[in-house]
Structure formats: structure tokens, C-alpha cells
Amino acid sequence: MKPGTDTFKEQLILPQGSDSPVRKQYSITLRIPMLRIHTLLIRTLRIPALRMSALFLLLLAVASTRTFAQGNNAPYSQFGLGDLDNGYYNRTTGLANTGIAYRSNRFLINNNPASFTGLSDQYFTMETAIRGQYSSYAGSQVNVASTDAADITFRKLVLGIKLSHHWGSSIGLLPYSTQNYEFQVPYNIAGTTLQIADHYYQGHGSVNRAYWANAFEFFHHLSIGVDASYIFGQLNQNDIIQATSTGATLVSTTNNTSLQNLYVTYGAQLYGRVGRNWNYSIGGTYSGKGSLLAASTKQVLNNDSIMLQNIQNQEGYLDLPEAWGVGIALTNKQKYTFVADYRYQNWNGVASQNAYPGQAYSLASAQRGSIGFEISKKKAFYNTMVELNYLQAGLFYENSYLQINGQQIKDYGVSFGFGANGLKSPLSYSVIFQYGIKGTTKNDLIRQNYADVTFIINFGQIWYTKGKKFD
Amino acid sequence: MTIIHHYLRKELLILSSFIGALFFLAACEKQPDVGTFGSGQVSDNGSANIVVVDSSTINMTTVYVDSTSTSATGFMMVGNYTDAYMGQINSQAYLQIRPPAGLPILDPQRDVYDSIGMDLFFVRSNPYYGDTTVPETYEVHQVTSLYQLPPFEYAWYSNQALPIGGSLGSTTVSIAPNLPYTSQNAGDTVKIRLDDNLGRQLYNMVYNKSDTITNLATFLDWFKGLCITPGGTPGSAIYGFSADSSVMKIYYRENVNGASVTKSLDFTFFNPSAQWNYVTNDRSGSPIAALVTPTSRTQPPPETPSSLTGHASYVDNALGLTTKLTFPYLSAISQRPDYIGLLRAQLTVIPLAGSFSTTWTLPPQVGIYSTDLHNQLLVPISAANGGPVQMGNLTPDYLQPLLSTYTYDVTNFIASQIGNTSSGSNQVGLMLSVPPPTNVNSYRRLAIADQSFPTQQRIVLSVYYISLYPHQ
Question: Looking at chain B from residue 36 to 65, which residues have their Cβ under 8 Å from any Cβ of chain A?
């Protein structure tokens, strides 16, 4: 772009469609005054575009540190490892996260590590997601004057590349569970009704999954993947005793539990074509039982925030269950896709060995069933079909791993998604709306009605072009 | 790389805006109130708790100081009464007066001596104590010895008295202290007619312009001073008259153009530091009859355990009584296995049930001080958060006496003592004492039940400590 002008010549790359990516060059002249400052910034600071990308990621990371700290009060996250996150925040989110058998040539489908062989050759992709959630709570213990909550959270950052024709690889960071709760109960002197303070219980933290997954394709119809995850995180539980009259902190106890260990998930997909119009894919995943090494500390601060105790507890283990899932995907004319999944986590098998904090609740085997339907709009560019946008819908029903007051907590809902692939850039965007109901008001429990809006940004580019230039 | 160079710009702008918006939106978090949900599932996970110990042993003693400076208080405390706990109390006031500054020219043909009297004033804010419905008798005496402090003394004390002569005059009067009004129908003034012999003698001195009158030192050397005493009959209350308003008046009549006009020669109050109140206390037959008194002047103020004084200790500074509190087993709290720190400590002083009423009122302010093994009144104990000197925050409740309590934040003191196991630490304690200036102006007394009384009626030290069991 020439200095002092409002026009510049922009290189255009077409988005990656459902088939092999195409790269075309177009020269167009655009008049975009609003970009002057931004362009000037780039020029003045001499920041190359890739560095801008790095800057963008840095900004995103900073934003994530901010947004990770946010979180709705999720009453059920008090138990176990917190709220297990069954979302993948990817192309399948609009399908109610149904995607064990789903394959994509430009999106990373973390639902099954075997899916990464579906990426286009030499294709690099990066994806991040942000979710806003609005929740409304109901139940006999919920204060009717304060039933709502809203938050925005950063959900993931993943990268993937098709290293060779039969080898896809991905790394990334995904949430495993989150904990965020608070409640207050009167604190009476033992044996009396004399209330001297309130216990303000507060828990927050998250367990995350950093993974490296590799998938290998065999016989053009079978993909095997291994997802080696390092699960880590910290759950902080505060018990703050506050003066009833003033709310001033009298003493606080913070239990920090750091969790870490490796967790491996295996996946497989079998796929092919039936007739001229139908493509099929069958997938399965399996994770063996794992154990999280739990190192906990306890800190007690007095009313002047002076530390009275700092105790390093003996390390222990919190077990993760054996889990498996199966799924199927059927695509008609490269446009209509039907997907269905079933997932199972055998928490019963580890319940007796676990030492999760809390009492009067139990772990139960979790099951999740979901279906989804997708319409993909594609356009032919030369000999290739390029996806322009897509619409998705999904349903899910889940029996969670928590059983409280004799009720296994259920979660069910619907999702709708829309995605568009940028015509002038390697970016694509997805917006997914999900509405769900978790829990019940029976047996003094709480029902959470929630509405999520997830925004996913995907960046894709061909790498290893062997020196070929495009301008 | 060049491919990205241009077309990324627009998207980066959009994304930057998006992230910026995210920063703002992230601050819009709100949280619901889910009540106590989850409290039933909270396990005993080893959190610190607050434990209250209100059964700490408190040793109470009444410390007796044989005298206290009562000079220059501004009030002449005069009266006697019998208190159910303190015995019989008698207080009389010494003062000096001076002749009129400008002497009138008296003419025997025109001026005639009439009378001499003493005026005492009691205004609404002046202290009083006891049953004010009973008439009180007041007598005026002249000091007969040298009106002078003993060697090496610099103030008059409550146990010091000078010889006095016979009564110059007396009156019996009822005083309604809250109006105030006296039965003499003279408003707030108590008038005492004095001996006319003295009156005539002084009148003649004025007439003669005697050096005794015109020279203040000579006058004081001759006249010395006065002492206002309660009458010989037992009274029921004590009143604090305004010292600086007291005046002895010589009345004379002057013939002015055939009319008789009453005039006076005012001998006004002189030298506030020479005015003091002499207080005696006959404890025989009272609960404090066994009070330990000092046997020598150099002895520290002795203390008497509450067990020897009716299972109560007392605060009545005018009589030299303060209460000392020690906590012999305080360190046992810090030695509990779950003790990790002190949160706060509160001392609740409950007046002895039945010991106070609308007649025998409680001192509205009782200060709390540190004290040592010599029973000295040391520095005031401040609350944990600082603030003014603590006075107990009493709100008297005469219908429910047990709700009338003095409370003190003694966190700072307990924090310093709870881990103190050194020798002599048991003698370091707290002292309850009426703060100046009311300590010598007010005779209101406080009786405090010791720990032999039921829990709800006795003094309580509540120690709130932070508890964490080591096995958790």
C-alpha cells in the first residue's frame, strides 16, 4: 500500500473446502479507510504479518488469563473434579459435540484423535474458542432475588498439521473440568445456637488437558489415533469465616490441590463411500483408567491476613475412569451430514478408590448420547468444492457422574451452529448457540438452565509449499 | 508468508476489537445466590474454625489504695450514707476563703450588721450518689490548725484531715439533684446560717480596716479555713457542691435615704488546690470488712481475693477500691493441640445481681488498664483495632439487671499473655478503674460477681481462637 492512499492491493486466498484446499490469487483494490491506523501501525512498527499473528495469540493468551478467572457459580462443581467439560468447542459443537466419527479437512476434531488424518495434506490449522454463558438457577435453596449468572470464558487453543499424507498431528489446550462455587452457611459455636459468624465456602479452579495427538491412516479407510494428554490443574477451595455483622474475614482456610498426570485416549475411524452420494464414517474412542497425582496444601490466614499455618499434605491420587465412546457419521452429497455418538465413563469403577473431597454424594457412571445434523453449503471452484458456510443442529442427553441426594444429575439440551469460511482470508468463524438444562429441583437440588454462545475462530494455511510463492 | 501479509489485516482488526470487547465483558460477571446448597456435602476437610473458650479462670481481687488525691477536683463532696456493700461512707470538704477584694466604708450611723451565712451551690451536672429523698444535714466548721500540707506532700489526699472547731452553723435540707431544687426554696443554693459572733467579729474587722482583713496572708493565717461536714445524724446521700461558687457572706443593712437596703460582704472561694475532700469508710459489718489494708506507706496497694469480700470484687475509686483481674491458666488455651492463633478476646463484666438500682447507680464509665504484680494502674488497654480508651459501653438495664454489662476488647492484652509462661506472668493482669476525673468525684460503685456465681451472672472472658486440628 502506498503511503497516503486509502487503497491497497490485497491478496486473496480462497477458503479451504471439504475437499483439497485450493489457492488462487486475485488482485483487487479496496477502499477501506478504517484500516489506515492499523496499517500504519504495521508499517510504522514494521511488524510482519506473522508477528502480528503472534501478537494476536499473545493478546489471546492475555485475554485467556483474564477470562479463565471468570466463571459462573456452578453449584455442582463443588463435587468431584468439578464440572466435567464435555464440549470440544470445534466444528462439532453445533452438533451437540457429536463427532467421534466426524472428519474434516480443515478443522481439528478433538472428539477422536483418529480424525486428524482427515486434514488436507500440508495443512496447518489453529483454532481458539470463547464461550459466553448465561445461567438461571432454580431450587428451594436459591434466592429468588438472585438467580442469574453470566460469564465469558476462554475455552481452548489448538493447533494441528498434516505432516504427511497419512499422518496428522495436533497439540493444544482444552478444559477438562472447572470448579466455581460459593455458598454461605451460619457458623454456630458447637453445641449452641449462638451464631458468631458465617462460613463462606468458595471453590474455584480448573483442570486442563494439554495434549499431543497423532493419527495415522491405513488402507485409505482406516485411521488410528493416539491422544497423549497431560492433565493438570489446580482446585482451590476456600473456607472463609466471616463476621456475621460486618462481613469481615475472621479466618480463612485455603486448600489448594494440584493435579497432574498423563492420560491416554485411543481412537479409530473407519470411513469410506457408499454409492455416489453417501460417505460414511464409524468411530470409536477408548481411554484407560488413570490416576491424577494430587498434591495439596493448606494455608490458614487470620483476620490480618497473616499466615498461621502452611501445611503440605501427603500426596495422593484421584482416579479417572475408563471411558469409551462410539459414533457414526453419514454424509449425503457432501452437503448433509448426520452424526450420532454415545459416550460412557465408568466412574463406578473408581468411585470406591477415590478420595474426592466432600460427603453425602457419590460418583456414578456417566453416559452421554447425542445426535446432530449439518448442512454444508459449498461452491465449485475449478475442480474443487469449496465450503462457504454451514448450519448445524444437535441434541444431547447426559447422565453425569454425580449422584446427589439420590438423584443422578442429568444434563440435556439442544444446539445450533452457523459457520462461515472467509473468502479473502484463511480464517473461518463459527457461532454456536446451545441451550441446556442441568440438574433438577427435586430432593433439594438445583436446576440450572443455561444458554451458551460459543465463538470459534479458525486459521488455516498450507505449509511446506517447497518454495512456491504466491505473489 | 506474503499471502498473509495483506488479508490478515482486516481480520486482525476485527479480532483485536473482539478481544478488547472481551476484556470489558469479562468484568460484567454476576453471580446467583444458591443459599446453603452444598453445605450438606462439605466434609470435615480440615478447615480452620473458631473456638470460643469462655471458661477461663479469672482471679478477682479488690485492690485497696489507702488514699487518692482529692484536691482541686472542683467539687466539695459532702455527705454520709450507708452502702450495703461498702459500709458507712463519710465525706467532708475543706476549703479556704478570702476577704472581699474591695472593702466598703461602713458607717455605724448608717450600716448595721445583720447575719453571716454560707452558701453552697449544687447545679444539675454536679455529682451525687445515694438516696436523695432523705433530708441531709450540713455543718460548717472552722479549721483550727495550720492549713498547710505536711512536709513532702504536694496535694491533699482523701485520708488527710485537719482539726476543726465546733459547728459554726448547720442546716437540714432536701436537694432534688436533677432539677435542682432545695427545700429551702432557694433554687440551687443551700444556705447555712453561721454563728453571729464570727460574723460580728469579721464585720468589725471590715469596719476597722483591720490588717487581718486587708492582708490576705494574715487573714489566712488567722482564719485558716472552713470544713463542710455532714451532720452527726446518718445521712443517705452525698452531694458534690461547686467549690468555686461557695461563698461565706456577711449581711448588713444600710440606711439609704430612709430605706433599709441589705448588703453583703462576700468571702469567696480561694485557692482551688487547697480544697480537698476527706473521705472515711467504716467497713465493719459490710462485705468488704475483711479488706486487706496496707501496713506501711511504702507497701504496694494490697489486694483482697473476692472470696473474702462476698465473692465479689469492687470498683469505687473514691474509696480507693479497684478490681484486679488475673488469668492464671490462660496459657492452657494456647497449649491446646488445635490452637493456632488468637482471633479476639472479650471481657464481659456483669455487675453483681441486686447490687445496683436507680438509687445505687453504676458508674457509667469504667476503664480497663494493665497492671502488674505491684498492683499499679498502668496504661489503658486499647481495642484490637485501636480506637479510643475503652470505658465498658454500659447501658444500664434496671428491669433486666443481667443485661447491664461492661464489655471490653482485650485482644491485645490476651495476645501478649496467652503464650506467656514466664514467672510472674500470673500477676500481670487487668485493672478495672473509674477513669479521671470522675474517679474522685463520683462515689458510684461497681460490684462484680466472681466465678462462684452461675455462668450468666459472673464475669466472663471469651477467648476466640483459631482452631486447626493437626490430624486433619
Answer: 36-43, 45-52
Q: Which residues in B lie closer than 8 A to residue A39 (C-beta atoms)?
A: 9
User: pLDDT digits over A75-97, tens only?
Assistant: 888 888 888 888 899 999 999 99
Distance from CA of B327 to the nearest CA of A (A): 23
pTM of the model: 0.77
Closest in A130, A185, A470 to B36, CB measured = A185
Give the residue on B whose Cα is nearest the Cα of A444: B37
Q: Could you tell me if A406 lies within 8 Å of chain B, comparing CB atoms?
A: no
What are φ and ψ of residue A262, in 5° steps?
-90, 150
- A184 contacts on B by Cβ (under 8 Å): 36
What Å distances lie between residue B37 and A76, A184, A405, B32, B312, CA to CA?
Answer: 9, 8, 12, 12, 49
B11 in A contact zone (CB under 8 Å): yes
Which H or E run includes B415? helix B411-417
Give tens-digit pLDDT for A313-369: 888 888 889 999 999 999 999 899 999 999 999 998 887 666 666 677 888 999 999
B45 and A142 within 8 Å at the Cβ level: the answer is no
Instruction: Pick the residue of A59, A143, A180 with the most B CBs within 10 A to test the interface with B by mutation.
Output: A59
Contact A308 B468 (CB under 8 A): yes
Which of A56, A67, A181 is nearest residue B38 as measured by Cβ atoms?
Answer: A181
Q: Give the nearest partner residue to B45 out of A147, A357, A422, using CB atoms.
A: A357
